[in-house]
Amino acid sequence: MSEKYKPNDATGIYFITISVVQWADVFTRREYCEVICDSLAYCQKEKNLTLYAWCIMTNHLHLICSSPTLANTIRDFKKYTAKEIYKAIQQNPQESRKTWLCWLIKSAGEISSKHEEYKFWQPGYHPILLQNNHIVDQKLNYLHRNPVTAGFVEEPEHWSYSSAKDYAGDKGRLSITFLQ
């Protein structure tokens, strides 16, 4: 990972994107989104992750967050959620794409540089330091409008797995700290 995309400021607020291997649409099922939400809540409580905004799309998620140990927190988050989502896919009797998804995740692991048993997430998470209010507003708007742009909902706050509801004045799925 180049120096450009490392969280070098332990007090900084970052916009990050975490993507599924091959951009596979895994998060079309509620139970997989719940794994992400539960894991983010755990990281908030136990790993000093501060969430300012978040959005789960079908094949990636965006976070605006901070942590004194962001790289370690995201590493642990990705490792845990990969294992839990892979297990959830295997155990889901309603998962019509089970064979294909398991093959995809196992194949990605085999061809990875570490030759892992399976690989759910693409490498890296592309942290972008939010250095001024203009960039904060730009990334917050992009993150919340992502489901609208994709044609899934008419208004950002209608997307269940996003902090847009919080920013619209309602209570969302996860606790967030509002950006000033």
UniProtKB/TrEMBL annotation:
GO BP term (any one): DNA transposition
Taxonomic superkingdom: Bacteria
UniProt cross-references to Gene3D superfamilies, sorted A to Z: Transposase IS200-like
One MF term in the entry's GO annotations: transposase activity
SUPFAM superfamilies reported in the protein's UniProt record: Transposase IS200-like
Alphabetical list of InterPro entries matching this protein: RAYT_transposase, Transposase_17, Transposase_17_sf
Transposase IS200-like domain ranges (all copies): 10-146
Pfam families given in the database record: Y1_Tnp
The name this protein goes by in its record: Transposase
The organism of origin for this protein: Pontibacter flavimaris
Lineage, top ranks: Bacteria, Pseudomonadati, Bacteroidota, Cytophagia, Cytophagales
